[in-house]
């Protein structure tokens, strides 16, 4: 590293005089890495402890404050062969970790209680048909009550809280009938124990809790795993900016550490890391990742610039601003607020079922009690039977039906490089029938590539690419990606605004504008220009060639669009770029319905129009200008290269250069949705059989226990099919080059 | 059957100690890095190169 990075903002000072830094590490792939990293860092002076978490690839380093600079830690890791990036735990992630731990505690308590109570219950069941004395049975029932009451009070908290929250807002969810069932069963069992009756339901209650908590915990664990990977990826993007300090010197700092009012320096070829106003300097700005517009815009003092713009030609000094009124960012944020409010109206499948289910079940219990009383039974017997109906219909399988499928499906998505941001996205993805793509950065790659690489002589292209390694110009960066040998030529000289040249083996190489390379005549004869193409020329001695640089389509864009169409989705393009740039892309992909030059508000209007036609719209986009559209659509996906604000609005994020994850997502979501409905049906059939039995008074605690565990297992096993077929189909194909796990390892 | 009067509380006590041990290990952070723990056991940390 030529410049040292100022990481002080990430360092946490502790009371005992030590400093603490969390880092996300790339390149960990074996057990030896643990020792190498920890051992290597402990040899640095002042390091107290270095602890690597192999599961989530994060390193915690502590050193005596003042004896070591944080940059030295990163440099030492670099020397050892690992890239390290400062990591700031996001609030959401910490919250999820805490919740997962809490659920695990509840699960442990419920597991302990259900095992011990089952031990007592089985003794009573077998004793009831043989020779148990009433005293021993009472003793066992009292013991069971003693275990069950505190266990339910503790382990039932997640359900109590959720049910209370729903009721307070005047809604019902699946947890309401669960809580009612649990409390009634407990209450009845206690009364029956006091009356030294034959049957109690302590075992059913605690087992029910145990099963439900298993589902909740798995759901939570899956979500936490994806969040951890997403958090690391965010850290690995490692955005840095040159901040100009008081003495006018530029210092390299993480972009996250900047405050409004700071001045930053952006050199040609760098991306602007922050929103701000140009103080001095003039340049051309490529805002394609922000607005979708591929034509460059001149930037002069006083102009507003947005994070994500690429600085082309001159060095700029920018003052960091918070979102001011009237700027694009401000407009986007206002549009976002209204769009996000509209989205929260979606009701999850499980809640829809719960809304219909709870009243029906409670009515059935009431009818049972009335029927038994009118048939001449005692009030006590009538109540017991009514409660038995409630217990047997307590929606254990129903409550597991959806989350278990969600866990298995998000696991399958994770393996195909898609992270879900929201839990209910699967249902909405499955319902989507129209897919709207943004062009720039979504259908095309966010970086520029040489478009005619195949038509240029390979050795000429290789020399051009190696020469391009010496230049920071964005066009040269695009050419440099073609280099197989990544060592720049020695003695390369860059002439500002012209190009770069070097002399190799007595032959002069030049890369730059056509006139600089003496290739203007070539340009004239091959000028069948497309709108978004930039031209760069290369000469080696007398040989000359013209390279076209453009944002290329993602390699599998055409096949993915076709696959999506085969799935019955209507594909459209909605871009902020000019029609001339969108038309060829649309033609190449065979998409007939496209609209160009759309501002954020236009995009929302188009989506609203589609929704008014009764379509369910899946929006795929990455730019800042897409954020409101992503929030306004029924469901949305964005690439990992999208801006933070945009990613936060998307329901799912996909990794890598390929577009295929989108088709996979739709397939997996549809299968998952099918399985959810199947599971709900299974749970319903179970209830149709169980309720009449309970109504007639045939349900004993033994039968309740069997029925509950039976239906829950059936639903869980059915959910596992959400991954089955998929893993077969992917194992038939060659393994994906970049899986989510290897992305973590910096592949 | 008087034997039950102390056998069952004993069984419960054993179960409780298991629960307590689990809760302690959770609090102690034993599950924070499950994959790492599986690999760390292979390194000889008493032999420093």
Automatic annotation (TrEMBL), chain B:
The keyword Transmembrane applies. InterPro entries: Cyt_oxidase_maturation_cbb3 (IPR004714). The keyword Membrane applies. Keywords: Membrane, Transmembrane, Transmembrane helix. This is Cbb3-type cytochrome oxidase assembly protein CcoS. Coiled coil: none annotated. The chain crosses the membrane at residues 6-26. It comes from the Bacteria. It holds the Pfam family FixS. It comes from Microvirga arabica.
